[in-house]
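This section describes the prediction task in plain terms. A model, or a person checking by hand, is given the sequence of a single protein chain and must write out its three-dimensional structure as a string of tokens. No templates, partner chains or ligands are provided. The sample shown here is typical of the held-out split.
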Amino acid sequence: GDPLGDLGLTVAYWNELGEPAAGEGRLFREPITALPGFPGSDELVAEYERASGRDVSALGFWVACAYWKIAIIVEGVYARYQAGVMGTTDPAAFEGFRTNVERLAAAARAAVERMP
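The expected answer:
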């Protein structure tokens, strides 16, 4: 597939959604990208463009696809939990899933709206 698909997925996983790392609705409790020395996603994309020579003007599309893909995966895990096939019946283990799906879908929409 398009190499920008991989870059879009990387950007989607970067911890820059404006929420605290351990806040409710976060996918990751301690994202590695929050540690000192990690560039912002804009810096990452600029370096990718410089090093690869590829045009990244269509990256917004791939970021939106990545957020949507992750939302679908999270929703699928939650559906399996609701069906009782996840090995746990503890609702606390899955309480943030609905919030995550909504947040990721909103991030996908925002990525599309930022596209030129």
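For orientation: The longest helix spans residues 59-82.
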